[in-house]
Amino acid sequence: MKKIEHIGIAVSNLEEAAKTYEVLMQEKPYKTENVESEGVTTLFFKSGESKIELLAATNDNSPIAKFIAKKGEGIHHIAFSVEDIDTEIERLKSEGYQLISDQPKNGADNKRIVFLHPKSNHGVLVELCQERTD
């Protein structure tokens, strides 16, 4: 693990949340992106090397919509940057970690991603991210 890449925050209203974080962070978001495979619109803020990703559902069946319905708005996941996501997947599986999927997929902000099940991380959803080179 190289560093914490970002913290993902599930929000009900992306526009309202964006205004809140613009005031908090004293800057505008640097990127908004739809990730259709996850049924989510993401909005990123950056402060130094740290990032905050706001996540809003684009449909009622998306993981974010289900998360908000169950737990309300709030921290959804912590993402760690890795050099080689495939090697990390194998390492963590061999250590007994439960992954949500066995293969990485394309995510927001030009990343290959995979999630570790919260049961493996004391209730915290963990995302591994590797910069895409394609």
UniProtKB/TrEMBL annotation:
PANTHER family assigned to the protein according to its UniProt record, in alphabetical order: METHYLMALONYL-COA EPIMERASE, METHYLMALONYL-COA EPIMERASE, MITOCHONDRIAL
Ranked from the top, the taxonomy reads:
Bacteria, Pseudomonadati, Bacteroidota, Flavobacteriia, Flavobacteriales
Tell me, which GO biological process terms does this entry list? L-methylmalonyl-CoA metabolic process
Q: Where is the VOC domain?
A: 3-131
Q: Which GO terms describe its molecular function?
A: metal ion binding; methylmalonyl-CoA epimerase activity
Q: PROSITE patterns recorded for this chain? A: VOC
Note whether Metal-binding occurs among the keywords. Answer: yes
Q: Which UniProt keywords apply?
A: Metal-binding
Q: Under what name is this protein listed?
A: Methylmalonyl-CoA epimerase
What family does the entry list?
Belongs to the methylmalonyl-CoA epimerase family.
